[in-house]
Design goal:
two-stranded antiparallel ribbon
Amino acid sequence: MIEQNASPPYQGFEQGPIRPPSEAQSLLVRVTRNCHWNRCAFCPIYKGARFSIRPVDHVLRDLDSVARHVETLTLLSSGPGLLLEDDVREAFNALPAEETAPFRAALSWFVSGMESVFLQDADSLVLRPAKLVVILSRLRELFPSVKRITSYSRSDTIARMSEDDLRALGEAGLNRIHIGMESGCDEVLALMYKGATKELHVRAGLKVKAVGIELSEYYMPGLGGCDLWREHAQDTADAMNRINPDFIRLRTLAVPERSPLAEEVRAGRFRKCPDLLTAEEILLFLDFLEGVSGYLASDHILNLFPELEGRLPDDLPRMKDLIREFLTMEPEARFIYQLGRRLGIMSRLSDAADPALKSEVLEAARRSGVTPENLDETTDEIVRRFI
Protein backbone atom coordinates (compact mmCIF):
# COMPACT_ATOMS: atom_id res chain seq x y z
CA MET A 1 0.00 0.00 0.00
CA ILE A 2 1.12 3.59 -0.66
CA GLU A 3 1.37 5.84 2.38
CA GLN A 4 2.42 9.37 3.23
CA ASN A 5 4.20 10.34 6.43
CA ALA A 6 3.34 13.99 7.02
CA SER A 7 -0.25 15.04 7.60
CA PRO A 8 -0.91 18.40 5.92
CA PRO A 9 -3.56 20.79 7.26
CA TYR A 10 -7.18 20.20 6.28
CA GLN A 11 -7.94 22.04 3.03
CA GLY A 12 -11.70 21.79 3.20
CA PHE A 13 -14.26 19.51 1.63
CA GLU A 14 -13.11 17.81 -1.57
CA GLN A 15 -14.56 15.83 -4.44
CA GLY A 16 -12.60 14.45 -7.38
CA PRO A 17 -13.16 14.90 -11.13
CA ILE A 18 -14.63 11.56 -12.22
CA ARG A 19 -16.84 8.64 -11.28
CA PRO A 20 -18.45 5.80 -13.25
CA PRO A 21 -21.76 6.66 -14.98
CA SER A 22 -23.42 4.06 -12.76
CA GLU A 23 -22.47 6.22 -9.76
CA ALA A 24 -24.21 9.36 -11.02
CA GLN A 25 -26.43 9.49 -7.93
CA SER A 26 -23.75 8.55 -5.43
CA LEU A 27 -22.15 10.69 -2.78
CA LEU A 28 -18.56 11.22 -3.93
CA VAL A 29 -16.05 10.78 -1.10
CA ARG A 30 -12.48 11.71 -1.97
CA VAL A 31 -10.02 9.34 -0.29
CA THR A 32 -7.08 9.88 -2.65
CA ARG A 33 -6.22 12.59 -5.14
CA ASN A 34 -5.53 11.68 -8.76
CA CYS A 35 -3.87 8.42 -9.87
CA HIS A 36 -0.75 6.76 -8.43
CA TRP A 37 -0.04 4.97 -11.75
CA ASN A 38 -1.00 7.74 -14.19
CA ARG A 39 0.81 6.27 -17.21
CA CYS A 40 -1.99 4.77 -19.32
CA ALA A 41 -1.58 6.11 -22.85
CA PHE A 42 -5.31 6.42 -23.53
CA CYS A 43 -6.17 8.31 -20.33
CA PRO A 44 -5.99 12.13 -20.17
CA ILE A 45 -7.60 12.61 -16.77
CA TYR A 46 -4.75 13.00 -14.26
CA LYS A 47 -1.78 13.79 -16.48
CA GLY A 48 0.40 16.45 -14.84
CA ALA A 49 -1.33 16.07 -11.47
CA ARG A 50 0.49 14.83 -8.36
CA PHE A 51 -0.92 11.82 -6.54
CA SER A 52 -1.59 12.05 -2.81
CA ILE A 53 -3.52 10.24 -0.12
CA ARG A 54 -5.85 12.29 2.03
CA PRO A 55 -5.40 11.79 5.77
CA VAL A 56 -8.21 9.72 7.24
CA ASP A 57 -9.26 12.48 9.62
CA HIS A 58 -9.71 14.83 6.64
CA VAL A 59 -12.04 12.34 4.96
CA LEU A 60 -13.96 11.91 8.22
CA ARG A 61 -14.37 15.69 8.49
CA ASP A 62 -15.85 15.68 4.98
CA LEU A 63 -18.31 12.98 6.01
CA ASP A 64 -19.28 14.82 9.18
CA SER A 65 -19.94 17.98 7.14
CA VAL A 66 -22.20 16.12 4.74
CA ALA A 67 -24.01 14.48 7.66
CA ARG A 68 -24.73 17.88 9.26
CA HIS A 69 -26.17 19.22 6.03
CA VAL A 70 -28.21 16.07 5.44
CA GLU A 71 -29.71 16.60 8.90
CA THR A 72 -30.61 20.19 7.96
CA LEU A 73 -32.15 19.07 4.68
CA THR A 74 -34.12 16.36 6.46
CA LEU A 75 -35.64 18.97 8.76
CA LEU A 76 -36.52 21.14 5.76
CA SER A 77 -38.08 18.35 3.73
CA SER A 78 -41.73 17.40 3.56
CA GLY A 79 -40.89 13.85 2.53
CA PRO A 80 -38.04 11.74 1.09
CA GLY A 81 -36.11 14.03 -1.23
CA LEU A 82 -38.85 16.69 -1.20
CA LEU A 83 -37.60 20.23 -0.64
CA LEU A 84 -38.86 23.75 -1.26
CA GLU A 85 -36.47 25.82 -3.34
CA ASP A 86 -36.88 28.90 -1.14
CA ASP A 87 -36.02 26.91 2.00
CA VAL A 88 -32.90 25.49 0.39
CA ARG A 89 -31.78 28.89 -0.88
CA GLU A 90 -32.25 30.44 2.57
CA ALA A 91 -30.25 27.67 4.24
CA PHE A 92 -27.49 27.95 1.63
CA ASN A 93 -27.22 31.73 1.91
CA ALA A 94 -26.75 31.46 5.67
CA LEU A 95 -23.68 29.24 5.33
CA PRO A 96 -20.05 30.34 5.67
CA ALA A 97 -18.07 29.98 2.44
CA GLU A 98 -16.28 26.80 3.54
CA GLU A 99 -19.59 24.98 4.03
CA THR A 100 -21.09 25.65 0.60
CA ALA A 101 -19.32 22.77 -1.17
CA PRO A 102 -20.39 20.05 1.31
CA PHE A 103 -23.90 21.53 1.34
CA ARG A 104 -24.14 21.21 -2.45
CA ALA A 105 -22.85 17.63 -2.26
CA ALA A 106 -25.34 16.80 0.49
CA LEU A 107 -28.20 18.41 -1.44
CA SER A 108 -27.46 16.51 -4.65
CA TRP A 109 -27.21 13.25 -2.73
CA PHE A 110 -30.29 13.95 -0.62
CA VAL A 111 -32.60 14.47 -3.60
CA SER A 112 -31.26 11.31 -5.26
CA GLY A 113 -32.26 9.13 -2.31
CA MET A 114 -28.90 8.70 -0.52
CA GLU A 115 -28.54 5.03 -1.44
CA SER A 116 -24.97 4.83 -2.77
CA VAL A 117 -21.47 6.17 -2.11
CA PHE A 118 -18.46 6.20 -4.42
CA LEU A 119 -14.90 6.47 -3.05
CA GLN A 120 -12.58 8.61 -5.19
CA ASP A 121 -10.19 9.07 -7.03
CA ALA A 122 -8.62 6.46 -9.32
CA ASP A 123 -7.78 3.79 -6.72
CA SER A 124 -8.98 4.11 -3.13
CA LEU A 125 -7.68 0.67 -2.23
CA VAL A 126 -4.07 1.92 -2.15
CA LEU A 127 -4.94 3.19 1.33
CA ARG A 128 -3.99 0.77 4.09
CA PRO A 129 -6.96 -1.57 4.66
CA ALA A 130 -7.25 -0.69 8.35
CA LYS A 131 -7.56 3.01 7.49
CA LEU A 132 -10.09 2.37 4.76
CA VAL A 133 -12.11 0.30 7.24
CA VAL A 134 -12.26 3.37 9.50
CA ILE A 135 -13.73 5.43 6.66
CA LEU A 136 -16.19 2.70 5.68
CA SER A 137 -17.28 2.27 9.29
CA ARG A 138 -17.94 6.00 9.67
CA LEU A 139 -19.99 5.95 6.49
CA ARG A 140 -22.13 3.14 7.86
CA GLU A 141 -22.46 4.90 11.20
CA LEU A 142 -23.52 8.25 9.74
CA PHE A 143 -25.65 6.90 6.89
CA PRO A 144 -27.06 3.48 7.87
CA SER A 145 -29.53 3.47 4.97
CA VAL A 146 -26.77 3.38 2.32
CA LYS A 147 -27.12 0.26 0.18
CA ARG A 148 -23.93 0.39 -1.87
CA ILE A 149 -20.36 1.64 -1.39
CA THR A 150 -18.07 1.33 -4.38
CA SER A 151 -14.60 2.30 -5.57
CA TYR A 152 -12.27 2.19 -8.53
CA SER A 153 -9.16 0.07 -8.10
CA ARG A 154 -6.33 -1.34 -10.18
CA SER A 155 -5.61 -5.01 -10.68
CA ASP A 156 -2.03 -4.63 -9.42
CA THR A 157 -3.29 -3.06 -6.19
CA ILE A 158 -5.72 -5.89 -5.53
CA ALA A 159 -3.20 -8.55 -6.52
CA ARG A 160 -0.87 -7.27 -3.76
CA MET A 161 -3.59 -7.36 -1.10
CA SER A 162 -4.20 -10.37 1.07
CA GLU A 163 -7.57 -12.04 0.73
CA ASP A 164 -8.22 -11.38 4.42
CA ASP A 165 -7.67 -7.64 3.98
CA LEU A 166 -9.96 -7.53 0.97
CA ARG A 167 -12.61 -9.50 2.82
CA ALA A 168 -12.36 -7.07 5.75
CA LEU A 169 -13.18 -4.19 3.38
CA GLY A 170 -16.22 -6.09 2.19
CA GLU A 171 -17.35 -6.74 5.74
CA ALA A 172 -16.92 -3.03 6.52
CA GLY A 173 -19.28 -2.09 3.70
CA LEU A 174 -17.36 -1.97 0.39
CA ASN A 175 -19.62 -4.03 -1.83
CA ARG A 176 -18.54 -3.22 -5.39
CA ILE A 177 -15.15 -2.62 -7.03
CA HIS A 178 -14.69 -1.15 -10.52
CA ILE A 179 -11.55 -2.34 -12.33
CA GLY A 180 -10.36 -0.95 -15.66
CA MET A 181 -9.22 -4.12 -17.36
CA GLU A 182 -9.54 -2.32 -20.72
CA SER A 183 -7.92 -5.30 -22.49
CA GLY A 184 -6.94 -8.89 -21.84
CA CYS A 185 -4.34 -8.84 -24.61
CA ASP A 186 -0.81 -8.55 -23.25
CA GLU A 187 0.46 -6.79 -26.37
CA VAL A 188 -2.26 -4.14 -26.13
CA LEU A 189 -1.71 -3.72 -22.39
CA ALA A 190 2.01 -3.18 -22.95
CA LEU A 191 1.45 -0.68 -25.77
CA MET A 192 -0.93 1.29 -23.58
CA TYR A 193 1.38 1.24 -20.51
CA LYS A 194 -1.47 -0.23 -18.48
CA GLY A 195 0.86 -1.69 -15.87
CA ALA A 196 -0.90 -5.05 -15.89
CA THR A 197 -0.96 -8.34 -17.74
CA LYS A 198 -3.83 -10.63 -18.61
CA GLU A 199 -2.86 -13.03 -15.83
CA LEU A 200 -2.68 -10.18 -13.31
CA HIS A 201 -6.16 -9.01 -14.32
CA VAL A 202 -7.50 -12.54 -13.95
CA ARG A 203 -5.84 -13.08 -10.57
CA ALA A 204 -7.17 -9.80 -9.18
CA GLY A 205 -10.65 -10.33 -10.54
CA LEU A 206 -10.90 -13.82 -9.07
CA LYS A 207 -9.72 -12.50 -5.70
CA VAL A 208 -12.50 -9.90 -5.61
CA LYS A 209 -15.08 -12.53 -6.53
CA ALA A 210 -13.71 -14.95 -3.92
CA VAL A 211 -14.41 -12.55 -1.02
CA GLY A 212 -17.97 -11.82 -2.14
CA ILE A 213 -17.52 -8.22 -3.36
CA GLU A 214 -19.30 -7.36 -6.61
CA LEU A 215 -16.90 -6.88 -9.51
CA SER A 216 -17.35 -4.49 -12.42
CA GLU A 217 -14.76 -4.98 -15.20
CA TYR A 218 -14.29 -2.48 -18.03
CA TYR A 219 -13.62 -3.42 -21.66
CA MET A 220 -12.46 -0.71 -24.06
CA PRO A 221 -13.47 -1.50 -27.66
CA GLY A 222 -11.00 -0.01 -30.11
CA LEU A 223 -8.00 -0.07 -27.78
CA GLY A 224 -6.13 -2.52 -30.02
CA GLY A 225 -6.45 -0.19 -32.99
CA CYS A 226 -6.67 -1.47 -36.55
CA ASP A 227 -3.69 -3.79 -36.07
CA LEU A 228 -4.66 -5.73 -32.92
CA TRP A 229 -8.44 -5.57 -32.80
CA ARG A 230 -8.91 -9.33 -33.16
CA GLU A 231 -6.40 -10.25 -30.47
CA HIS A 232 -7.81 -7.52 -28.24
CA ALA A 233 -11.37 -8.87 -28.57
CA GLN A 234 -10.52 -12.54 -28.18
CA ASP A 235 -8.07 -12.23 -25.29
CA THR A 236 -10.32 -9.83 -23.40
CA ALA A 237 -13.25 -12.21 -23.78
CA ASP A 238 -11.08 -15.07 -22.51
CA ALA A 239 -10.08 -13.05 -19.43
CA MET A 240 -13.74 -12.22 -18.75
CA ASN A 241 -14.65 -15.90 -19.15
CA ARG A 242 -12.10 -16.89 -16.53
CA ILE A 243 -13.18 -14.21 -14.06
CA ASN A 244 -16.96 -14.16 -14.65
CA PRO A 245 -17.43 -10.63 -13.29
CA ASP A 246 -20.79 -9.36 -12.08
CA PHE A 247 -20.66 -6.56 -14.67
CA ILE A 248 -18.85 -6.06 -17.96
CA ARG A 249 -18.96 -2.37 -18.90
CA LEU A 250 -18.13 -1.10 -22.38
CA ARG A 251 -16.08 2.10 -22.75
CA THR A 252 -15.30 2.72 -26.41
CA LEU A 253 -11.90 4.30 -27.03
CA ALA A 254 -11.74 8.03 -27.66
CA VAL A 255 -8.43 9.83 -28.15
CA PRO A 256 -8.49 13.35 -26.69
CA GLU A 257 -5.64 15.65 -27.59
CA ARG A 258 -4.23 15.73 -24.06
CA SER A 259 -3.74 11.95 -23.91
CA PRO A 260 -0.33 10.41 -24.76
CA LEU A 261 -2.08 8.21 -27.32
CA ALA A 262 -2.94 11.29 -29.39
CA GLU A 263 0.73 11.70 -30.32
CA GLU A 264 0.85 8.05 -31.40
CA VAL A 265 -2.14 8.68 -33.67
CA ARG A 266 -0.55 11.81 -35.17
CA ALA A 267 2.70 9.94 -35.79
CA GLY A 268 0.86 7.09 -37.50
CA ARG A 269 2.02 4.52 -34.95
CA PHE A 270 -1.55 3.87 -33.79
CA ARG A 271 -4.43 3.58 -36.26
CA LYS A 272 -7.73 4.20 -34.55
CA CYS A 273 -10.58 1.88 -35.49
CA PRO A 274 -13.51 3.46 -37.33
CA ASP A 275 -16.99 2.69 -36.03
CA LEU A 276 -17.52 -0.14 -38.50
CA LEU A 277 -14.40 -2.00 -37.39
CA THR A 278 -15.15 -1.33 -33.72
CA ALA A 279 -18.58 -2.89 -34.21
CA GLU A 280 -16.93 -5.97 -35.75
CA GLU A 281 -14.58 -6.12 -32.76
CA ILE A 282 -17.44 -6.01 -30.26
CA LEU A 283 -19.25 -8.76 -32.16
CA LEU A 284 -16.09 -10.89 -32.04
CA PHE A 285 -15.79 -10.21 -28.30
CA LEU A 286 -19.38 -11.35 -27.78
CA ASP A 287 -18.78 -14.44 -29.94
CA PHE A 288 -15.93 -15.49 -27.64
CA LEU A 289 -17.80 -14.92 -24.37
CA GLU A 290 -18.56 -18.26 -22.76
CA GLY A 291 -19.79 -19.13 -19.29
CA VAL A 292 -20.20 -15.51 -18.15
CA SER A 293 -23.35 -14.99 -16.11
CA GLY A 294 -23.08 -11.30 -15.22
CA TYR A 295 -24.62 -8.20 -16.79
CA LEU A 296 -23.19 -6.46 -19.84
CA ALA A 297 -23.72 -2.70 -19.70
CA SER A 298 -23.19 -0.05 -22.37
CA ASP A 299 -23.63 2.87 -19.99
CA HIS A 300 -21.33 5.50 -21.44
CA ILE A 301 -21.95 8.26 -23.97
CA LEU A 302 -18.88 7.17 -25.97
CA ASN A 303 -20.55 3.89 -26.93
CA LEU A 304 -22.18 3.62 -30.35
CA PHE A 305 -24.80 1.14 -29.10
CA PRO A 306 -26.40 2.27 -25.81
CA GLU A 307 -29.00 -0.51 -26.10
CA LEU A 308 -26.27 -3.18 -26.12
CA GLU A 309 -27.17 -4.29 -22.60
CA GLY A 310 -28.45 -7.44 -21.02
CA ARG A 311 -28.02 -10.43 -18.78
CA LEU A 312 -25.48 -12.99 -19.90
CA PRO A 313 -25.78 -15.49 -21.43
CA ASP A 314 -29.55 -15.19 -22.07
CA ASP A 315 -29.43 -11.83 -23.88
CA LEU A 316 -26.29 -12.59 -25.86
CA PRO A 317 -28.11 -13.64 -29.07
CA ARG A 318 -30.15 -10.42 -29.08
CA MET A 319 -27.02 -8.29 -28.61
CA LYS A 320 -25.19 -10.07 -31.42
CA ASP A 321 -28.18 -9.61 -33.71
CA LEU A 322 -28.14 -5.88 -32.95
CA ILE A 323 -24.56 -5.50 -34.14
CA ARG A 324 -25.14 -7.70 -37.18
CA GLU A 325 -28.08 -5.48 -38.08
CA PHE A 326 -25.81 -2.42 -37.92
CA LEU A 327 -23.11 -4.09 -40.02
CA THR A 328 -25.60 -5.07 -42.74
CA MET A 329 -27.47 -1.75 -42.91
CA GLU A 330 -27.53 0.20 -46.13
CA PRO A 331 -24.60 2.65 -46.10
CA GLU A 332 -26.87 5.71 -45.98
CA ALA A 333 -28.87 4.36 -43.04
CA ARG A 334 -25.67 3.47 -41.21
CA PHE A 335 -24.28 6.96 -41.85
CA ILE A 336 -27.48 8.49 -40.46
CA TYR A 337 -27.35 6.36 -37.31
CA GLN A 338 -23.65 6.95 -36.64
CA LEU A 339 -23.98 10.71 -36.92
CA GLY A 340 -27.35 10.78 -35.18
CA ARG A 341 -26.00 8.83 -32.23
CA ARG A 342 -22.93 11.03 -31.86
CA LEU A 343 -25.05 14.19 -32.04
CA GLY A 344 -27.41 12.85 -29.38
CA ILE A 345 -30.34 12.74 -31.79
CA MET A 346 -30.61 8.94 -31.83
CA SER A 347 -30.33 6.46 -28.97
CA ARG A 348 -31.46 3.21 -30.59
CA LEU A 349 -30.56 1.57 -33.88
CA SER A 350 -34.21 1.59 -34.90
CA ASP A 351 -34.15 5.41 -34.70
CA ALA A 352 -32.41 5.40 -38.09
CA ALA A 353 -35.76 4.47 -39.64
CA ASP A 354 -37.68 7.28 -37.93
CA PRO A 355 -38.50 9.87 -40.66
CA ALA A 356 -38.41 12.87 -38.32
CA LEU A 357 -35.11 11.89 -36.68
CA LYS A 358 -33.63 10.96 -40.05
CA SER A 359 -34.55 14.38 -41.41
CA GLU A 360 -33.01 16.09 -38.39
CA VAL A 361 -29.71 14.22 -38.84
CA LEU A 362 -29.54 14.90 -42.56
CA GLU A 363 -30.14 18.59 -41.94
CA ALA A 364 -27.39 18.65 -39.32
CA ALA A 365 -25.07 16.90 -41.77
CA ARG A 366 -25.89 19.46 -44.46
CA ARG A 367 -25.28 22.42 -42.16
CA SER A 368 -21.97 21.05 -40.88
CA GLY A 369 -20.70 19.60 -44.14
CA VAL A 370 -20.57 16.03 -42.84
CA THR A 371 -20.34 13.35 -45.53
CA PRO A 372 -19.66 9.61 -45.53
CA GLU A 373 -16.08 10.45 -46.52
CA ASN A 374 -15.40 12.65 -43.45
CA LEU A 375 -17.78 10.93 -41.01
CA ASP A 376 -15.11 9.13 -38.97
CA GLU A 377 -13.06 12.29 -38.58
CA THR A 378 -16.18 14.23 -37.57
CA THR A 379 -17.41 11.68 -35.03
CA ASP A 380 -13.92 11.40 -33.53
CA GLU A 381 -13.99 15.13 -32.91
CA ILE A 382 -17.46 14.94 -31.36
CA VAL A 383 -16.62 12.16 -28.91
CA ARG A 384 -13.41 13.89 -27.82
CA ARG A 385 -15.59 16.64 -26.37
CA PHE A 386 -17.16 14.16 -23.96
CA ILE A 387 -13.89 13.45 -22.11
